[in-house]
Amino acid sequence: MKVLVADKVAPEGIEILSNQAQVDVKLKLEPGELKKLIADYDGLVVRSETKVTAEIIEAGKNLKVIGRAGIGVDNIDVDTATRKGIVVVNAPTGNTVAAAEHTIALMLALVRNIPQANALLKSGVWQKSKLMGNELRNKTLGIIGLGNVGTEVAKRARGFEMRLIAYDPFVSAHYARTLKVELVSLEQLLGEADFITLHAPLTPATRKLIGARELAKMKPSARIVNCARGGLIDEKALVNAIEQEKLAGAAFDVFSTEPTTDSVLFKSDKIIVTPHLGASTVEAQVNVARDVAEQVLAVLNGEFSKYAVNMPHILPELLPFVKAASLIGNFASQLWKDR
User: Which end of the chain has fewer beta carbons closer than 10 Å to its terminal beta carbon, N or C?
Assistant: First the structure.
């Protein structure tokens, strides 16, 4: 078995793969280089930097599994992989706590003006009066997406004595109640929340889930945090809302184009930005590396993969049903637009 690791992953993951397969680590490959190399490999491991396009997947004549060391797979053409009988696996729980903690950190930074205070004081200005903040206690937190990360955010927000509401068409009211979260419509969440945090996947149905129409329904004192996926929020519409004082502030860890050093979001002092640090902890990187390595080996050994994002196992005799499964998935994703 041969596995190509195209993005930097923790050594613990490489070690697990190396116990059963020949592993080649080749970083920062250009698309053309990856296309030429991929035919020799049974497995491919990436993070978010490498784009696994349809063209690359088609060139993977021996490819059986693509592993994403992390949660989101929007850099992988999952439809093409599914059609080719290639299992796509990810590591959805390894960086959950890291992403949740970063979300809370950004909320605190917003509400207590921490970046502004740091910049002012280091520039020689002691200025307390213009840095008056607010408490999280007794504020309403609206969570869009009550999955792994959304759940961990809810648990931590309870410690701040916040009221919790959530919008998630795939979560039962019973599950939400166990977290002391009230399930509501997206429209109700937008109107009631003092803070909104997004933890949804990026799909055609969720792209620009929060646009000008949705922002107009929010309180002028509300703040929004996105540590999930760039593209969930219409960035230009959000900046316009803040400039017109229809929104108090925002914090972004993800962007519609990454990497980036020039964004409309950078122009406002009321918007805090970080360079996709949600999963950037030592612990999270070790966890996702181990998880994805175990999933890749499971597929290569003919075993069922725990975190397959397209099918638990794609068998040749099941390929005629792949298109039907894809249609069902597309229908389910449209529920995100259900008001």
Answer: C
Q: What is the dihedral of CA 55, 59, 64, 66, to 10 degrees?
A: -40
**What pTM value is reported for the model?**
0.83
Q: Report pLDDT digits (tens) over 126-156.
A: 999 889 999 999 999 999 999 999 999 999 9
The Cα 82–Cα 233 span in angstroms is 28
CATH number assigned to the domain with residue range 2-94+281-337, chosen from the 4 options 3.40.50.720, 3.30.390.50, 3.40.50.300, 3.40.630.30: 3.40.50.720
Query: How is residue 177 written in tokens?
Result: 């109640």
Of 279, 225, 254, 233, nearest to 71 by C-alpha is 279
Task: Report the catalytic residues.
Answer: 229, 258, 276
Q: Which pair of tokens denotes residue 257?
A: 């184009």
Percent of the chain with pLDDT over 70: 91
